[in-house]
Amino acid sequence: MFDIGSTELLLIVIIAVIVIGPKDLPRALYKVGQVLGKARGMARHFRTGIDAMVREVEVEELEKKWADQNKRIMQEHPAEPSSAPAMEPLATTSAAAAPVAEASPPPFVAQSAPAVAEPKPAAAADGPPYIAAQSATGKGDAPA
Questions:
Q1: Contact yes or no for 136/124 (Cβ under 8 A)
Q2: For residue 19, what is the DSSP state?
Q3: DSSP per position, 125-143
Q4: Degrees, nearest 5: CA angle 13-17-21
């Protein structure tokens, strides 16, 4: 970017040590880093804004292009009138407009089934599985 060689960088470091001093040099470098970071952030923000504006312009151009193509296609292929008779609105009567006294749930509402209690397993299965399996099969029982 600035095309600074190693000799120029060494000269800058020597002058900075002489002018600023070795005691305040770390603080000065920290401040320079902060300023450079803020400058990069501002440049990134500016670039992002420019990119967003370019994208908006491109979208507007595409919308115009699509609208022109749509208009051309609609002119080439006009809509054909339908041979079906036109629909007429339903006549509303006072009985149909009145609310229904008995409210029944609509047919698409699912009714929940009542909860069924699961039966408890046998008492032999209440213990750990390996003990329950042994007692159920008869293995492991003391000889009688």
A1: yes
A2: H
A3: GGS-HHHHHHHHHTTTPPP
A4: 155
Task: Check: CB of residue 13 under 8 Å from CB of residue 6.
Answer: no
Dihedral sign computed on CA atoms, order 112, 113, 119, 121: negative
The residues, ordered by sequence, that sit 6+ positions from 135 with a Cβ below 8 Å of its Cβ are: 124, 127, 141
Tens digit of each residue's pLDDT (9 = 90 or more) over 119-132:
555 555 555 666 65
Chain-centre distance for alpha carbon 120: 45
Tokens of 85: 């008779």
How far apart (Å, rounded) are the C-alpha atoms in residues 138 and 38? 80
pTM, entire model: 0.40
Tens digits of residue pLDDT in 54-73: 999 999 999 999 999 999 99
